[in-house]
Specification:
Helix content: 25-40%
Order of helices and strands: EHEEHEH
Number of helices: 3
Largest sheet: 4 strands, antiparallel
Shape: globular
Structural class: alpha+beta
Distance between the termini: 11 Å
Length: about 100
């Protein structure tokens, strides 16, 4: 999903793919957010990114972070309420809809 910076951006980073997938699943079921992308950062770190309105993203990130921590290692979580548009170019590099 393309991200251009108009909406809030939520990030959850875990060590390993399993807690990252769990976080993504819970985030998408908890609130009205859209999966933007995921990235294998290296050293086993995986970051999952979602977008939506600030309240929905905050709720989703809190729930996703708790779910990831329950089954694995949560390394970071963060909500960016209104990032500048240039952040969209960084985030969209690994767009899940890109071919």
């Amino acid at each position: 999903m393309k991200y251009s910076g108009e909406e809030a951006l939520g990030l959850v980073e875990t060590r390993g793919m399993v807690p990252a997938i769990q976080a993504a699943d819970v985030m998408l079921k908890t609130a009205d957010v859209v999966l933007v992308s995921y990235e294998n950062v290296g050293s086993g770190l995986v970051t999952v990114m979602v977008k939506g309105d600030v309240a929905a993203v905050r709720s989703a990130v809190e729930s996703g972070a708790a779910a990831a921590a329950a089954i694995g290692e949560l390394t970071a979580s963060h909500v960016m309420p209104r990032p500048i548009s240039r952040v969209g170019k960084i985030v969209s590099k690994h767009d899940i809809d890109a071919e």
